[in-house]
UniProtKB/TrEMBL annotation, chain A:
InterPro entries (UniProt xref): DUF3325
Transmembrane feature ranges: 43-60, 67-87
High-level lineage: Bacteria, Pseudomonadati, Pseudomonadota, Gammaproteobacteria, Pseudomonadales
Keywords: Membrane, Transmembrane, Transmembrane helix
Entry protein name: DUF3325 domain-containing protein
Length: 105, 98, 560
């Protein structure tokens, strides 16, 4: 796969992680995925924002700046909808986004 | 859903939002292009800038039409504003061409 | 207007959203299809299923093609109505201007020309005294494509999305423009109404009752793609602004505009008028080579997207060569103009000023001439999310008022629901039916394109009639069976289209994906199959909901 293709894949992956972490940082969704633990770790939200930033950088490595901006803004809704659908139909799948060592307070 | 406005008032607001605001924005665009060009901006740059501003302005005015307390005041502002601006644009054009 | 600001904004969102939502469905759906308009053309016109070609040689191929190009009978008829006296015979009209246009996705080349006429106009202000000719040609051979092969993608779905194919006085363009403005209004009022914007960013509760889960989906698809929806509506308006919506330069400020054009012509050195002195055309291929060299020097190497010649055959003639802007978003032309008789460079377009650059970015964002397949598919996803947002809006509107309307014996919900079916399943069905007709109609049939268009409108009308006919249950606060019935019809039509493509052209999916890859056609076939799957899934889910509702009423008590 070409260089640009790999960077785009990285952008998509970090975007998926970002939406996963940001979703899990919301109490209602944390309880959907981890029935036992009550409270989401406080650093999930900053981690999510960081992953968003990483995806921006990956987009800019893949393409001309003007296209990178558009790719990022259109990746976001696709990732967000994918995360939302996972939460609605198979919430347990999202546990992979937050493995055990991240769950510790 | 409680509607505390009469049917006539609602129709008036709808017409103001669609057509009244359109006329007002037309005035802003015409006057804006003429004024910018008169101030030295290249014609197409002036035109493009005003086109982009136009729809953001239209959006804001549209919402104001429904948020404002008095529909009469809305019509006054839109009608007088557009007439004044269109006339000013015409006048400015005459002055520029000389 | 109402008791509070929020209530007023909610009123605007509901009623303007409902009425213009039907137009917006068309704009968003056909807009999404238009991302791959040229690929749909390839599917519909099998003779064009070859690889995209660069602009061919002018000296060796296009020169002869243009020599053979005649004024088009349709434009002859239209122009004859605007001028005094009879038009001269088409073979005698001199060609005074021409263009050739291609992109990185086009196997075929679009060409056009202007022919001069000696007649005077009926309206003295009418300064457009030319007859036009046009054609689509195979750039490998110069052969012209038959005229009545309708380009279903670029010449039907694409214009549908910005004009609704209603051309009388350009009313369709204005209606779509109003709808786009209302889209912006709906987005802002939606945000004002939606209190838990961030908390419910990922919220979708499909197991709750229809009203709640529909609203969840409506909110989610609206919010997560908000920048996308906003920018597409906004840039669409900006693209048509100076020509249709705020044509100040052609009306109130025409004197100012025309004065600028003359000054600009003097400044650029590109002659506005003919000299009246005949002159030969130098080697255009040499000019193209020079243009490419200059672009490469500027670190913007590329192919020719648009070739134009003004004042053909005259001493003032000039050749304009524009780059196919495929590596960035902005629709830059990097135009280079040459003196037609000598081939010397007259002018290199300078980089745009800041306003121009912003404008080029915005229009380029919408018109998508860039080469980025991932981004194209992301655009389709965004467009479909917009469709889901609008469709769930309709469903929510009906669900919220169904009970009350049933109690008060009103028919409003029933009508809205029927119209929703027509603009959701019915519209997709009409588009796919058009593709089916495209494969069923005989190849050499005259007026083939017109038959395809009639199929489109006919199926859409049938779906409206079907939806109305089946809508009685909505007036009793139940659901319209037309939704799932049209889903089944759609699934059948999609599979039929794919099978017919195989039967009539031999291009089945195994061939177009693996054996002799041709992704334009494979993409359309795969999308049709995906649509069929979604339709079947939806139809079965809708049937299950009905069964559950009926079963839950057996005990005399309805559980919701």
């Amino acid at each position: 796969m070409s260089n640009a293709g790999l960077w785009l894949l990285a952008a998509a992956a970090s975007m998926w992680l970002a939406t996963g972490w940001l979703a899990l940082s919301l109490p209602a969704h944390w309880r959907q995925v981890f029935v036992a633990n009550e409270v989401a770790p406080g650093y999930l939200r900053p981690l999510g924002w960081l992953a968003l930033g990483v995806s921006v950088l990956c987009c800019f490595k893949a393409d001309h700046p003007s296209m990178a901006v558009l790719v990022w803004f259109t990746l976001l809704p696709v990732a967000a909808v994918a995360t939302a659908m996972t939460l609605s139909y198979r919430p347990a799948l999202l546990r992979v986004v937050c493995p055990v060592f991240l769950r510790a307070r | 859903m409680m509607v505390s406005a009469s049917r006539g008032a609602i129709i008036s607001r709808i017409l103001a939002a669609i057509f009244g605001c359109y006329a007002f924005v037309w005035g802003v665009v015409a006057l804006g292009v003429a004024a910018l060009h008169g101030a030295g901006v290249e014609y197409h740059a002036a035109e493009q800038a005003m086109m982009m501003l136009a729809f953001l302005l239209y959006l804001g005015l549209f919402l104001w039409t429904f948020a404002a307390a008095s529909v009469r005041r809305v019509w006054l502002v839109l009608a007088v504003g557009s007439a004044v601006m269109l006339a000013a644009a015409w006048q400015l054009q005459r002055m520029i061409i000389g | 207007m109402l008791n509070s600001f929020r209530q007023s904004m909610a009123w605007v969102h509901t009623w303007f959203g409902l009425v213009l939502g039907f137009v917006l469905m068309v704009a968003f759906f056909f807009g999404a299809l238009s991302v791959f308009d040229r690929e749909i053309d390839r599917w519909a016109i099998p003779e064009t299923r070859f690889e995209p070609q660069p602009m061919p040689s002018y000296d060796n191929l296009l020169k002869q093609v243009f020599a053979d190009l005649k004024p088009h009978p349709l434009d002859m008829a239209a122009t004859a109505e605007r001028v005094i006296g009879d038009l001269p015979a088409p073979e005698t009209m001199p060609m005074v201007g021409l263009f050739a246009y291609t992109t990185h996705r086009d196997p075929v080349l679009r060409i056009g020309a202007e022919f001069a006429i000696p007649n005077k106009p009926i309206d003295p202000k009418d300064d457009h005294l030319h007859v036009h000719g046009w054609a689509t040609i195979d750039p490998r051979t110069g052969a012209a494509l038959p005229d009545d092969q309708l380009k279903i993608g670029s010449n039907w779905f694409y214009p549908m999305h910005y004009s609704l194919q209603v051309h009388w006085k350009n009313i369709g363009v204005f209606v779509v423009g109003l709808a786009a403005l209302v889209m912006l209004v709906a987005l802002v009022t939606g945000v004002i109404m939606h209190r838990k914007l961030f908390k419910e960013f990922f919220t979708f509760r499909p197991k709750k009752r229809t009203q709640r889960s529909t609203l969840d989906l409506h909110n989610m698809t609206g919010v997560v793609a908000l920048p996308f929806h906003f920018f597409f509506a906004f840039t669409g308006l900006v693209i048509f602004a100076s020509f249709y919506y705020f044509p100040v330069s052609g009306t109130l400020l025409k004197p100012l505009h025309d004065r600028h054009e003359v000054i600009e012509a003097e400044h650029t050195g590109l002659p506005h008028d003919e000299a009246g002195v005949p002159a030969e055309l130098a080697s255009v291929d040499a000019m193209v080579a020079e243009a490419k060299r200059i672009w490469a020097e500027r670190d913007m190497a590329g192919e020719v997207g648009l070739l134009m010649i003004e004042h053909l055959g005259d001493a003032n003639g000039y050749v304009s060569i524009y780059r196919a802007g495929s590596d960035r978003v902005a629709l830059v032309g990097e135009g280079i103009h040459f003196k037609a008789s000598t081939g010397e460079v007259l002018r290199e377009e300078p980089p745009s000023d800041p306003v121009g650059a912003v404008n080029e970015f915005l229009t380029g964002l919408h018109l998508q001439h860039f080469e980025h397949w991932t981004l194209r598919w992301l655009y389709v996803a965004g467009g479909l999310l917009g469709c889901i947002c609008i469709a769930t809006g309709f469903v929510f509107f009906v669900e919220k008022r169904k009970q009350e309307h049933a109690k008060r014996r009103l028919q409003g919900c029933r009508l809205v629901d029927a119209m929703a079916v027509t603009t959701v399943t019915g519209m997709v069905l009409a588009a796919v039916a058009m593709l089916v007709a495209n494969r069923l109609l005989p190849d050499a049939m005259p007026g083939r394109g017109d038959w395809e268009k009639w199929t489109f409108w006919g199926v859409w009308l049938l779906s409206l009639l079907h939806a109305l006919w089946r809508s009685a249950p909505v007036a009793q606060a139940r659901s319209n069976p037309a939704w799932r019935e049209q889903c089944w019809a759609l699934a059948l039509a999609c599979v039929a289209a794919v099978l017919l493509n195989w039967l009539t052209t031999g291009d089945h999916l195994l061939k177009t994906m693996l054996l002799e890859p041709y992704w334009a056609v494979a993409g359309v076939d795969l999308s049709l199959l995906a649509c069929a799957l979604v339709s079947v899934f939806t139809a079965r889910r809708l049937a299950r909901t009905v069964e559950v509702k009926q079963a839950s009423r057996i005990g005399g008590v309805a559980y919701e």
